[in-house]
Amino acid sequence: MLASRALWLGTHALSLRYAGDANCAGSTSPAIAVTVLPRVALVMSLVGIGPFAVGGKPLRCTLKLRNQGPHPVTGGHVSSALPSNVSSAQWHCSAVAANCAASGVGDIDQLVAIQPFGSVAFVVSGQVAAVPELPLAIAASVAAPEAIEDERGDNGINRSVAVGIFRDGFAPD
């Protein structure tokens, strides 16, 4: 018979014990350490930007991060290297059941704390370069601290957005 019970967060010593029977003597295995980590499910999304941006015009998009629980995360690392063809880049962060720095300039490199089902939103704005018309390479990621198990593990965004001044072609005269 195998008896078990749920383990709480933390490190536990586990060993197996066999009571024995008429054919075999009982024994106990050496203890092994098992660590149960808090779990989170961090979900990142990018909204407010389509497949095309106009060169020479303002850019505004929102990087959202949500903790789908069941535990809080403190020290989650959010990073985003903003595209080199976006100038005057700045961001503002708002939080629901979470904490983040209020604002910054340039790339995002921030630690956040998010309660279960809480979220942070980084609203990014800047000016798209008119020339050369190179795609905007938008990349962002979040990493949970080592002491927390992230169930998703694929917490990154990589998106390419076309840039051009003639999105729909030339207008007829």
> Gap between N and C termini, in Å?
86 Å
What is the CATH topology assignment?
Immunoglobulin-like
Quaternary structure annotation:
single chain
Assign a percent range to the helix content. under 10%
Major sheet attributes: 9 strands, mixed
The structural domain count equals 1
- As a whole number of angstroms, the C-alpha radius of gyration is 25 Å
Beta percentage is over 45%
Tell me the number of helical segments per DSSP (H or I, 4 or more residues long): 0
CATH superfamily annotation: ntegrin, alpha v. Chain A, domain 3
Mean pLDDT: 85
Uncertain segments: none
Kindly state the number of beta strands.
Answer: 15
Organism: Tahibacter aquaticus
Protein name: DUF11 domain-containing protein
Keywords:
nine-stranded mixed sheet; mainly beta; DUF11 domain-containing protein; two-stranded antiparallel ribbon
Protein model, in words:
This is DUF11 domain-containing protein. There is one protein chain. By secondary structure, the chain is an all-beta fold. The chain has a single domain (39-163), classed as Immunoglobulin-like (Sandwich), CATH 2.60.40. It contains no helices and 15 strands. The radius of gyration is 25 Å and the shape is elongated.
